Amino acid sequence: MQSNTGEKMNMTGVGLPRPRRHVGRAAASATLLAALMLGLFVGVASAQDVEGCLICHGDPNFTDPTPAENQEGDDLSLYVDSEVFLSSVHKELKCSDCHEGFLLTIPNHQLDMDKDFRQVAIEACEGCHQEAFQEYQTSDHAQRFYEDQAGPICISCHGSHAIRRVNLGEESADFKMSMARDSCGQCHADKFEQASHEFHFKALSLGYERAATCFDCHGFHDNLALTSGEPETVEACRQCHPGANEGFTYFQMHLEEGFQNAWWGVRVVYYFFSTLLVVVLVTGIAYTTVHFQKETRTILGVFGRGTGRLFGFIRQLEEESMREREGRPNGPEDQSKDEPENDDRGML
Amino acid sequence: MAEATYPATGEERLEGAAVAETNVEGRDYYVRFSPYHRLSHFVMMTTFIGCALTGPPLKYSYDFWAQAMMGFWGGVENAGLIHRVMAGFMVADFVIHVLYLGYHIGLKKAKIFGPDSIFFWKKDLTDALGMVKWFFDRGPRPRFERFTFWEKFDYWAVFWGIAMIGTSGFALWFPTVTSTLVSGIFLNVARIIHGDEAILAIGWILFVHLYNSHLRMNVFPMDPVIFTGRMPVEHVKHDKAAWYDRLVREGKIKPE
Predict the structure, then answer these.
(1) Is residue A249 within 8 angstroms of chain B, CB to CB?
(2) N or C: lower Cβ tally within 10 Å for chain A?
(3) Does A271 lie at the interface with B, CB-CB under 8 angstroms?
(4) Taking CB atoms and an 8 Å limit, are B218 and A199 in contact across chains?
């Protein structure tokens, strides 16, 4: 499933923030090296470049053979799923178009360790996507990234090798929902969960593609936090609700189930109507049930009244079986004995 | 039995004209609901069903049946359109009924409290207690007048429902208008009220109204009176004894 950009990202190993001294060495055989060098010297076409890299990186078991110090868990996978890459929007590109400067040092590519690899990664994207990059620079995401390297970069949301083509304004509801869940929801799981209780996500999950997903309000690259009452929030709402004013932005998209993080008035209304719902329905259903058992009892007629009716029923069965054994028909005096005392049955 | 019919007295009541008639089989009927009453109920019923089938799939969009139900309507947009059209007719039906009430109370000076009125009065309380006693074999079944207390409750529940679901529904239908009047947080409030009250209404109709009106022993499997307007006189006698006595006393029906 290509929609899961987050998983793809981690599978290909990019975006995992841990230091590495150098990559590769032992895994490449002399045969492979020869084939690769030949390709390079002849002058690489894009397909050859991709094929060349995939000789090693197409192996699902290809991992970083020189693990970092203090590494925890499995070795870093260096595997690239060629099927996923060749169905991505970047399928026409060469590996070296993004992984600049890596190719010629194969197989012992030395990484520039003075530079954080995430900085290298966003510069690779910037090479083609300057406009998106400039927007990103203004976002809360970029601010966190430049502050302490903790904020997300391009590949955190888009993935690395599985990037899909997006026709802006023509996204399907499925796509919008999967972006919200798999990209934004990776870090903002609580916000995703909260928004799921509101109309927009409910409509999206039912296939209504015009309903807003995360980026419709918060922006694609210039992601904003959006606070009620702020002019930028009014602008965000106005994209779909042209008449939106400042008061409109006090609608809360991210309320918890149970409304614990909401204004107290919301909780009061919620408790009142939930209680009303339960009390009225339980009362109504209890009334109907008691009415029903009265009628059932009246129809069956013969079981006596109150708690004694079960014993009356058992006694009647015993008497019937006794009569059957004695071959005696049900006498009129027995019938009159079984009649209930209240004479209003049938008059319901 | 078949020879006599009992025409309406011509006296206007809050609930419209009443007339007794005899069908071809010689069974005496009493006309309990006027054509307006039947039409009004029919519109309320159909629009309610329309809203109840198009709304919940959105509220429970993550449940397995919601997708299929939305697929049946042809998507959220269609279901929303049907929901709004139905709601429009329902509110129109309600507004017309309020005008009808105003006409009869204001201009025709119909009595608000009395045996023929849909308004609650003290007998409803004793009837309800009597009914509970009857359930537990502690007394006879109450002798009901024209409208039993559960019929009145169902009637007035519509007023509460329209006030709550209708108001919150319009608030959600025109969110930007709502936000010019009150803070946007009331859209959250409206969503809570709309959904909760809708579930209450649907639950009430399914579990209480349908049983009391159609599944009771005397009328099982359904009571067609709300659609035909006609109620067999013997049914009146058994079900609403006090009303039957009054109708006989007033000469509107022939005693059985």
Answers:
(1) yes
(2) N
(3) no
(4) no
pTM assigned to the model: 0.76
**Residue B70 near chain A (CB below 8 Å):** yes
B239 to chain A, any CB pair closer than 8 A? The answer is yes
One domain for residues A54 and A151: yes
Number of structural domains, chain A?
3
- Which ipTM score applies to this complex? 0.86
A277: in domain: yes
> Are residue A183 and residue A125 in the same domain, yes or no?
no
Least confident of A232-241, A257-266, A315-324: A315-324
Q: Do B193 and A280 touch (CB under 8 A)?
A: no
Residue A345 has pLDDT above 70, yes or no: no
Residue in A250, A256, A279 to test binding to B, most B beta-carbons within 10 Å: A250
Same domain, A133 and A66: yes
Residues A183 and A124 placed together within one structural domain of the fold: no
- For B93-117, letters b (16+ CB in 10 Å) and e give bbeebeeeeeebeeeeebeeeeeeb
Which residues fall within 8 angstroms of residue B118, CB to CB, at 6 or more apart?
B14, B15, B147, B151, B152, B155
Whole-number Cα distances in Å, B125 to A261, B104, B144, B152:
43, 25, 12, 12
Q: Are residues A47 and A184 in the same domain?
A: no
Cβ contacts of A273 on chain B, cutoff 8 Å: 192-193, 196-197
Helix (H) / strand (E) containing B29: strand B28-31
| Nearest residue in A to B193, CA atom | A273
Query: Could you say which of A188, A218, A250 is where a domain stops?
Result: A250
Q: Does residue A94 lie within any of the structural domains?
A: yes
Range of the domain at A274: 269-338
d(CA A183, CA A159): 9
